Each structure stands twice: as structure tokens, then as C-alpha cells.
């Protein structure tokens, strides 16, 4: 009798604590069905309800929350890791930048209108001065009015490093490519400019954030091919009717017969050595040179009908020697700019993509590496020019403050 009363009290306690209809909404029917039919198995079945529900939830890949007041079961996946303060700040800044796009466009249009109005007023003032015969010469700085001249030389910006850069580094590379185009466009003597391996995140940024402005760039070719295929196409262009003129640093380099073949130094000596083991020598033969600071060879001059590859990579020195390894794997000769022969620097001699291109453009104009380096190398690198002394000046090595290689810091 005592055992029956104890069992009835457990049933009453169970009835007061558990609502069978609500449990049936989220528990398997096979588990809950026995609760209402048999009072003898109530306690045992109830103990297994939680275990059965958890087992069913784990098979579905989620977590079940017992919501007795609702009509639906709740499945939740594991929450993702919370964003850091720095990440949240970047997201807010990016959102603000996108929201202000139309405002910036309006401000640019307003500035253009104001500039046109100022020009119109200036023209009107000049007309009045001319009518009164009191025209005065405006005190404006002298500007280079010479139109850019195309030379038969090509610079290829190799952008096949998309997966090695962060988002911030990709943004920086996009700015460097824009600067390369601007410098080449405004240079006195310009080169053919090609952007190879153009795709991935970099291309997506140019087509979205930068509104495909690169499609209007003149004198620049964007291609998805690698630098080897791009160089082959560039060689055909340089030797065509629009290849360029031999002016600037290339003045007077055509043959006497007028064939157009450039005689620029002696042809390379015959050798059985690998291409990367040969010193880079100027020649009139079609050639391709990958510029990298890790190369053991130094570039003395730039040669016509030659394609120079510049690695389009911003990596903060994480991937050392990757451009040199890439050139070696393709059997492409390598060289480095003669920075060490002309300059002393307080930091590494590795330069940004646009700096390398601008230095080469300056050389095409001056024919002088020292002057080109001084014009382009950023001041933060604290570059100083070495004074190069010749032996016929009567100065001996190791004396009068000169180093053993005949150079002295300025």
C-alpha cells in the first residue's frame, strides 16, 4: 500500500511539473507517447526525455532550446566569434565612406564649376587689359609644354600576387598602379605600359570601388596573361609602326642604313650558361628582364626593344625573394637598379612599384641614374649621392677621404 501511494505521489508531481502537449512539440513522438498511456513507465520515460531530445538535436547539427511557452522548437548554431573594436571601427568607416560617395561626387562637380568660372573671369580680365593696351605678363611658373614622346621600350607590371596581400595592401597596390599610369602619361619620354595577370580582388576593386576608371586610361593595356605572354605581345608592338622614336636617352641609336635596328652596345657574348647566370648587357635583340633587388646582376642602362618586368607586390617584406624566384622558375633574366653604386641609404633599397617605374622614366629623359634617383627616391629613406671619382683625376684609392672603390658620400 505504501508503495502504491509513493508511486501516485510521483505521478502527481510529474503532472504538475511537465506539460505533455508542450513536450510533444519538440520531443520525438516515440519518446513522449508512452508518458500518457502507462503510469508505471512514466518515471522511467521522463528521465530519458532530455537525453532523447539532446540526441535528436545533435543529429541535426544544432542546439535545442526548450521553449514551453512557444509553438515551435528553436534550433541555434554556435555563435560566431565577436568582432574586435578595430574591426568594428573599420566596418563603420567603410560604411561612412560608401554613404558619402554621392556627396563627394557633388563636391567634385561643384569644384569643377568654380574652376570654370574662375577661368572665365580670368579670360575676361585679360580681354579688358588687351583692349586698354595694358596687358601684363602673368607671373606663372614655367611649365613643360613638350608633348610626351613614345619610346620603343615596355614596362610590365606583374600583378600575379593577389593571394599574398591583405585588403589594405591591395588598396595600396591599386594606388601605385594609378601613379604609374599618371607618371608615364605626363613623362617627357614615355614607355609602353602593360598590366599583366590582371584579375582577382585587384580587378574587382578597379571595377567596383574605382568605378572602372582604368578602362579610360590611354597607352595602358590590361591583360589576364602572365608576364611572358604579355612580353611577347609587347615586343611586336614596339617593332611596329607605333613602336616609338629614338629620342631622349636613345638619341642616335639607329643604324646608318636606316633599318631601324638599334645598335646599343655589343651583342651578348655566346655562352652555354643559363640565362640567369649571364650579366644583363644592352643589345638590339628582343629581350625581357625581370627587375628585382635580389638579383646578382646590376642594370647599367635601359635598352630599346626590351621589356622590363616590375613586380606588383605590396607585402611589407613578408615574402622575401618571391619575384626573383618567380623569374628563375620561368627562365627569365633578372637585374636590379644600380642604387648601391650611386646612392647610400639608411633603409632597405626595396622601392615601391611606382617608384621603380618613375626612376626608369627619369633615366629615359636624363640618361643619368644619379639624377633619376635623387628626383624619385623618397626623403624618408635618407638617400645620399655617392661622388664617383675617376682614376685620371690623380686621386689614389684610400686617401683624401675616398673609399677603396673610388667613391665618397656626398
Could you give a short description of this structure?
With about 400 residues, the chain is an alpha/beta fold. The chain has helices at about 1-15, 20-25, 30-35, 40-60, 85-100, 100-130, 165-185, 200-205, 225-240, 320-330, 340, 355-365, 370-375, and strands spanning about 65, 75, 150-160, 190-195, 220, 285-290, 305-310, 335, 345, 385-390, 405-410.
Question: Care to describe what's here?
Answer:
Strands 5-4-3-7-6-8 form a six-stranded parallel β-sheet, with helices on both faces. Strands 9-10-11 form a three-stranded antiparallel β-sheet. The chain has a two-stranded antiparallel sheet with strand order 1-2. It folds into two domains: 2-76, no CATH class; 150-409, Alpha/beta knot (3-Layer(aba) Sandwich), CATH 3.40.1280. The protein is 42% helix and 12% strand. The chain is of the alpha/beta class and 410 residues long. Strand 4 (189-196), helix 8 (200-207) and strand 5 (220-222) form a beta-alpha-beta unit. It has helices spanning 2-17, 20-26, 29-37, 42-60, 85-99, 101-131, 167-186, 200-207, 227-238, 322-329, 339-342, 353-366, 369-376, and strands at 63-65, 74-76, 149-158, 189-196, 220-222, 287-291, 306-311, 334-335, 343-344, 384-388, 407-409. Mean pLDDT is 74; it is low at 13-20, 34-47, 56-76, 255-284 and 389-410.
Low-confidence stretches: 13-20, 34-47, 56-76, 255-284, 389-410
Distance between the termini: 113 Å
Question: Cα-atom Rg, whole angstroms?
Answer: 37 Å
The CATH level-2 architecture of the largest domain is identified as 3-Layer(aba) Sandwich
Name the overall outline: globular
Q: Quick one: CATH class of the largest domain? A: Alpha Beta
Average predicted local confidence, pLDDT? 74
What's the helical proportion of residues? 40-55%
Integer count of domains:
2
Element pattern in H and E:
HHHHEEHHEHEHEHEEHEHEHHEE
Estimated share of beta-strand residues:
5-15%
Strand order of the largest sheet: 5-4-3-7-6-8
Q: Summarize the biggest pleated sheet.
A: 6 strands, parallel
Total strands: the figure is: 11
Amino acid at each position: 500500500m505504501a508503495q502504491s501511494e509513493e508511486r501516485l505521489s510521483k505521478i502527481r508531481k510529474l503532472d504538475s511539473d511537465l506539460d505533455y502537449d508542450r513536450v510533444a512539440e519538440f520531443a520525438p513522438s516515440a519518446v513522449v507517447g508512452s508518458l500518457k498511456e502507462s503510469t508505471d513507465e512514466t518515471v522511467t520515460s521522463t528521465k530519458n526525455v532530455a537525453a532523447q531530445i539532446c540526441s535528436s538535436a545533435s543529429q541535426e547539427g544544432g542546439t535545442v532550446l526548450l521553449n514551453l511557452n512557444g509553438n515551435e522548437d528553436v534550433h541555434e548554431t554556435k555563435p560566431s566569434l565577436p568582432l574586435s573594436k578595430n574591426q568594428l571601427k573599420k566596418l563603420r568607416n567603410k560604411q561612412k565612406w560608401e554613404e558619402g560617395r554621392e556627396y563627394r561626387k557633388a563636391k567634385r562637380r561643384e569644384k569643377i564649376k568654380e574652376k570654370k568660372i574662375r577661368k572665365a573671369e580670368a579670360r575676361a580680365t585679360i580681354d579688358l587689359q588687351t583692349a586698354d593696351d595694358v596687358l601684363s605678363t602673368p607671373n606663372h611658373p614655367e611649365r613643360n609644354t613638350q608633348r610626351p614622346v613614345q619610346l620603343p621600350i615596355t614596362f610590365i607590371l606583374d600583378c600575379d600576387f593577389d593571394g599574398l596581400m591583405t585588403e589594405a595592401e591591395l588598396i595600396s597596390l591599386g594606388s601605385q598602379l594609378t601613379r604609374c599610369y599618371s607618371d608615364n602619361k605626363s613623362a617627357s619620354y614615355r614607355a609602353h605600359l602593360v598590366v599583366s595577370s590582371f584579375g582577382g580582388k585587384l580587378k574587382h576593386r578597379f571595377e567596383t570601388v574605382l568605378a572602372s576608371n582604368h578602362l579610360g586610361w590611354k597607352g595602358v593595356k590590361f591583360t589576364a596573361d602572365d608576364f611572358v605572354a604579355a612580353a611577347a605581345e609587347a615586343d611586336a608592338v614596339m617593332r611596329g609602326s607605333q613602336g616609338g622614336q629614338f629620342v631622349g636617352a636613345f638619341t642616335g641609336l639607329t643604324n646608318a642604313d636606316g633599318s631601324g635596328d638599334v645598335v646599343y652596345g655589343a651583342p651578348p657574348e655566346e655562352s652555354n650558361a643559363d640565362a640567369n647566370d649571364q650579366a644583363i648587357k644592352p643589345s638590339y635583340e628582343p629581350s625581357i628582364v625581370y627587375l628585382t633587388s635580389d638579383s646578382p646582376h646590376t642594370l647599367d642602362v635601359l635598352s630599346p626593344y626590351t621589356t622590363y618586368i616590375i613586380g606588383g607586390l605590396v607585402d611589407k617584406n613578408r615574402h622575401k625573394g618571391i619575384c626573383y624566384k618567380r623569374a628563375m622558375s620561368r627562365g627569365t633574366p633578372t637585374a636590379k637598379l644600380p642604387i648601391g653604386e650611386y646612392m647610400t641609404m639608411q633603409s632597405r633599397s626595396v622601392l615601391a612599384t611606382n617608384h621603380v617605374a618613375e626612376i626608369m622614366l627619369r633615366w629615359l629623359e636624363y640618361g643619368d641614374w644619379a639624377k633619376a634617383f635623387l628626383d624619385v627616391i623618397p626623403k624618408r629613406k635618407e638617400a645620399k649621392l655617392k661622388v664617383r671619382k675617376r682614376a685620371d683625376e690623380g686621386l689614389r684609392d684610400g686617401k683624401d677621404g675616398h673609399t677603396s672603390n673610388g667613391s665618397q658620400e656626398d
